[in-house]
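Q: I'm writing up a methods section and want to include an example of the input and output format. Could you take the sequence below and give the corresponding predicted structure tokens, formatted cleanly so I can copy it straight into the document?
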Amino acid sequence: MKKIACLFPGVIYTFDRPLLYYSWKLLDGLGWEIIPVRYGGFSPCSKKDIGMIIKSAGMALEQSEEALRGIDWSAYGDILMIGKSIGTIAGSAYARRHGINCRQIHFSPVEETFRYAGEKGIVFHGTADRWVDTKVVESSCAEKGLSLYKIEGANHSLETGDVGFDIETIKKTIGIIREYVLDRLFDNPETPLVGDRKIW
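A: Here is the clean output for your methods example:
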């Protein structure tokens, strides 16, 4: 079975940053075809500038259309969309626009993400993320049936400033993703429970 994973970065969170870099390395090692979606030309925006967030996400989506043009999605038995921040909007909106049956991994989604997110996916959120309120993420995940992993005190990059803790967070995050893509997340009793539970 052919498997493809598309990676949608954030505005400044690129493929050489830990979450996307190690997701890429993991999936490549498991035999997935990797498509890094590259876009740019954004203006700086803040969490209060919803219009600019939506505009940036729209730009990312349109550039994603060009980057993914010509892919025969029906040739793949497993499709994964991985997004970071605004990339969670672009990846989700692209999948919905094209009717792609896929799984999704959302790193630090913003509120707008949940307008487009599918119902097969997992979410990683830091409780000190200034771009979205934790209660919004919790309620949106509950409504969609998405599994939510919260990192206490982590910011929009899922970092706390404690290097040792942050390295451990990356390790656990990539471990959860590995179980998820291998379809073992819900079958292995040793795997941390999903849902509204702080796991570290």
